[in-house]
Structure formats: C-alpha cells, structure tokens
Design goal:
Radius of gyration: 23 Å
Bound molecules: adenosine-5'-diphosphate
Number of helices: 18
Distance between the termini: 54 Å
Number of strands: 22
CATH superfamily of the largest domain: ATP-grasp fold, B domain
Shape: globular
Structural class: alpha+beta
C-alpha cells in the first residue's frame, strides 16, 4: 500500500479522500491556495503546502507547483478528486513521467472518453445504445441540416470536449441551426480550447440515470448500481438518488452487464461513471466520466462500498475487493447539494462568510463538507457548502429523513438553496418519483421556493421581535428558519 498520498484538490472532496487514506493507514499531503489558507482540508492533512494564488490556474491547476510538493513531501501517489485536474490526461501522463501513481484510469482512456464523439463511437461498438446523432464533428452546415432532418428536430449541439453542462444549444428548426453551431463552437473554443461540436437528438423529458463502475487492472469490473440525477438546473445536478425509482432488476442487469463489458473493452481501470438518458423506457449512452463523481456518497450509502478506498487500492495494484453478486441495494439514499446560491435569482452563486453554521445529524444522515462557522465561501471556486446525504429503508423514509435533516440545517450569512430542496422534497411529483431533467420548470418549483422563503422570513421575524437582543441571535440560529435571514439582521 502507498505510504503517502497527495490530494490535488480542496474542500469537501479533499477531506473525503483524506478520510479514506487515514482508514488505510496512508499519510496525506494537502495543497492549498491563498484563499484556502485556513480551510479545514488543509488542516486535516498531515502535511500541507501552499501552492499559489486563489485563481485555479495559478494553484489547483498549476502542475509544476503540485509536482514540486509531491516530490518534496515524498508522495507516491496523487488523488485528483473531481474537477480541476481529474480528467486531464496531460496530468495523468506527467504523473507517469514523474514516477508518481495517478489514482484514476490510464491516461489513454481518459483521452478516449474525454472526447465525447470518440466515447460515443466506442460505447456504441461495445453494444451500448447511444443517443442518435452525428458520428463525427460538425464541419459543414448543409450536412448538419440534412443530418438533423434524418434524426428529427429538436436536436442539441454539444461540445465534444465539453463538461459542466456548458455551451449546449437546443435547436428546434433548420433556420436556427447555423447560428447554434457557430455559437456552440465559439463557447467550446473559449471554454475547452477545442471548437469541435456534434449533434444529438434532443430527447424531450428524459431522466438522467448513471451507472457507477469499478474496475481493476486485471480486467475485473463491476457496477455499483445506478444513480438518478434528473433534478438539474442549467444541465447541472442538484439532487441525486440511488436507486432510481424507474429501475427494474431486469433493466439494471441488462444495462449494467453491457456497461461492464464496455468498460472492459476499453481497458478501463479505477472508478468511473457511464451516464445515460432514459426516455420512454429506453436507455441512451450520453458520456463517460473518468473520475470520482460529486454524488458518489449515495452509491456508498446504498451499496456499503467505500469507493475512494477501492480507488486507492486499485491504483496500488490490488484486485477489486467485491464481486458483482455482493452488490445489491440496501434501502434508499438521497443527496442534496447545499450550495451558496440564490434559487430565486436564477441560482446565481452567492459566496460570502458563514456567520453561523451547524449541520444536521442523527440516524441515516451523512454530511460531506469542509466548512465551519466563520468560513468564507470563496468566489474563486464552486459554491458548494456541503453534500447532505440521507438513507432510509425505502424512498419514503429517505424523503422524510431529508426533510427532517434540511429542517435542522442552520446556515446564516449567505443565501443558500436549502429552500429549493425543501420545495422539491414536498412536491407531489417528486414524492411519486415522477422526475425528468425539466422537473424544476414543469413543476413550477421556483414559485414554491418563494413561498418557502416567505414563510421562513415571517417565522424568523416573529421570533426575533418577540425576544430580546441576545435571544434574537439565538432564535435566529436555533430555529431552522435561519437559512434565509441575512447576516446583518442577526448581527444587531
Ligand atoms: P456535460 O458533460 O456538459 O455535463 P452531458 O452530456 O453529461 O454534458 O449532459 C448534461 C445534461 O444535459 C444531461 O443530464 C441532460 O439534462 C442534458 N442533455 C444532454 N444531452 C441531451 C440530449 N441529447 N437530450 C436531452 N437532454 C440532454
């Protein structure tokens, strides 16, 4: 086993990885930027090194600085977490060159799956159904128009090197196509450094369902069931659950078995996720993520597998420690991404200082977070405050538990999306499992969020005015109503 691992990431995921290392008896090396000098993850690591200014290109994406630390500290392996360098094959290649193990798949597989057009081709060849679309990058608008006629409108134009839901263009008629291609190409070039775009059939009202895969370097592969991630804003996930309410054991076996064959066929090892859209009873391969996912805790919760420990052991050359037969769902898990963002203002990030922070606890609650009272959510990075995962014996119990846990959350000082999560958990369609990637619009969730916010403000104001100055603070922080009370109100 490795003696020392460097974690090239920050926040909750850095802590998550270091936790796995501690359990495996591995020493941890943290790296932090100027903005993260006092961050918990930097303190959690046994050794921590400053690597540069707050902007990611100068710190968390600065390979020279990271390798310098890795050598100085004597780290034998690097875990990249998610985001930053996690799907950067140059980074994986450089690890190899520098004699440090990259905790992730081989670099040629990262390359192959990072190109979505190539990924679609190889997954199709391996027997997975893909969303109908172009086999190559779009070069000629007239050809694109005839392809769109063939597959039928609406279509979606996407960046081959894309990620994070960025730069997609939905096209409903031929006269919009040329402009959509141009604009997608320009966003692709400026965001991903590659202007290649391709076309897919735009599936109306799909569900996003993905399979977690684990594979070792001996060619053993298993899947850890599916996750449903249909509750999204701007094509980005906000709530995930496992298993999926629409999954049947037969469908799971069929897609799961094919997915395993597909990852074997490309020589995959380590953890990865095959993403699918599900529409009218059918699955369509969307893309493969060659890294640990944000939403991995729900899978850990329903399967009992510690995915990060498996990743580290596999990277060290060990065999998978589970067989497929040992994997079956134990109850239900739901994750809410608690972000500093304003659901009433198009979910814009709302970074700032946490005046009060207390996370929920009790049975079936898992919190992955790197924040504390007094911590500042930095505008330089994503606005994630914490990942709240709950489990229950069935979906109904998991939802009730999530509602209870959301009620217990106390976050004062920044606007959060907790009222959004409360609105979704109370929604009749959500409770019935009627989900789609358009859930928020279809269910008028934002109007419900506004009602939740108003009710919370009222409750907070009533409590505050009924109490003296000191008690007012207490009221604001102990009542779960505090989530939407601005800092200045309780600081009085
Ligand atoms: P990214 O890598 O940028 O996250 P994905 O290909 O994974 O992009 O898609 C992200 C989300 O965008 C999906 O979960 C879905 O909501 C939407 N989407 C992508 N492709 C399609 C499609 N062909 N039809 C309908 N929705 C799509």
């Amino acid at each position: 086993m490795f003696r020392k691992v460097l974690v090239a990431n920050r926040g909750e995921i850095a802590i998550r990885i270091m936790r796995a290392c501690r359990e495996l008896g591995i020493r941890t090396v943290g790296v932090y930027s100027e903005a993260d000098r006092n961050a918990l993850f930097a303190k959690y690591a046994e050794e921590s090194f400053f690597i540069g200014p707050a902007p990611a290109p100068q710190s968390y994406l600065n390979m020279d600085a990271i390798f310098e630390v890795a050598h100085a500290a004597g780290a034998e392996a690097i875990h990249p977490g998610y985001g930053f360098l996690a799907e950067n094959s140059d980074f994986a290649k450089r690890c190899e060159k520098e004699g440090i193990t990259f905790i992730g798949p081989p670099c040629d597989v990262i390359d192959a799956m990072g190109d979505k057009i190539a990924a679609r081709k190889s997954m199709k060849a391996a027997g997975l159904p893909v969303v109908p679309g172009t086999e190559e990058g779009i070069r000629d608008v007239n050809r694109a128009i005839s392809t769109a006629e063939d597959i039928g409108y609406p279509v979606i134009i996407k960046a081959s090197a894309g990620g994070g839901g960025i730069g997609m263009r939905i096209v409903r008629s031929p006269d919009e196509l040329a402009h959509a291609i141009e604009s997608a190409q320009s966003v692709a070039k400026s965001t991903f450094g590659d202007s290649t775009v391709y076309m897919e059939k735009y599936l109306e009202e799909p569900r996003h369902i993905e399979f977690q895969i684990l594979a070792d370097s001996e060619g053993n592969a298993i899947h850890l069931l599916e996750r449903e991630c249909s509750i999204q804003r701007r094509h980005q996930k906000l709530i995930e659950e496992a298993p999926s309410p629409v999954m049947t054991p037969e469908m799971r076996k069929e897609i799961g078995d094919t997915a395993i064959e597909a990852v074997r066929s490309i020589g995959y090892s380590n953890a990865g996720t095959l993403e699918f859209l599900y529409s009218k009873g059918r699955f369509y391969f969307l893309e493969m993520n060659t890294r640990l996912q944000v939403e991995h805790p729900i899978t850990e919760t329903v399967t009992g597998v510690d995915i990060v420990k498996e990743q580290i052991q596999i990277a060290c050359g060990a065999r998978l420690s589970y067989t497929q037969e040992e994997i079956s769902p134990r109850g239900w898990a739901i994750e809410c991404r608690i972000n500093a963002e304003d659901p009433l203002n198009n979910f814009v990030p709302a970074p700032g200082k946490l005046r009060r922070y207390r996370s929920p606890g009790g049975p079936g609650v898992r919190v992955d977070s790197g924040v504390h009272t007094g911590y500042t959510i930095s505008p330089f990075y994503d606005s994630l405050i914490s990942k709240l995962t709950v489990s229950g014996r069935d979906r109904k119990e998991a939802i009730a538990r999530m509602q209870r846990a959301l009620y217990e959350y106390i976050i004062v000082g920044v606007i959060t999306n907790i009222p959004f999560h409360k609105a979704v958990m109370g929604n009749a369609n959500f409770r019935k499992g009627n989900l789609s990637t358009h859930f928020i619009d279809n269910n008028n969730i934002i109007a419900e969020v506004a009602r939740v916010v108003e009710a919370e403000k009222e409750k907070g104001a009533t409590l505050a005015s009924a109490l003296g100055a000191e008690d007012r603070k207490v009221a604001a922080i102990t009542a779960a109503v505090a989530t939407y009370i601005s800092a200045d109100k309780i600081q009085k």
